[in-house]
Amino acid sequence: MTMTVSYQAVECTYTDPLLGNYRAYAIVCRDLDGAQLALLDDFSADRAEAEAFAAQITAADLDPIHLTDAACDFLYLQYAVQ
Length: 82
Known about the structure:
By secondary structure, the chain is of the alpha+beta class. The chain is built from 2 helices and 3 strands. It has helices spanning 47-59, 67-79, and strands spanning 5-16, 20-31, 36-44. Strands 1-2-3 form a 3-stranded antiparallel β-sheet. Strand 1 and strand 2 form a beta hairpin.
């Protein structure tokens, strides 16, 4: 199977009225030419978690239209299911 997109965790700085400035990881989707197709801001403050998610959805060749749903499912499985 040929991958058509890749996902990467990217460190970003955000500003929140209560938290002030903080760093977290966004998930960026790019096509094979490097053009950005999708961006999911402020996914996680945990680099390893963001990189693991990006690797999973890259391997699955996830269509960018499903990025938000996949992120919700991933975080639910990480934190809500005990």
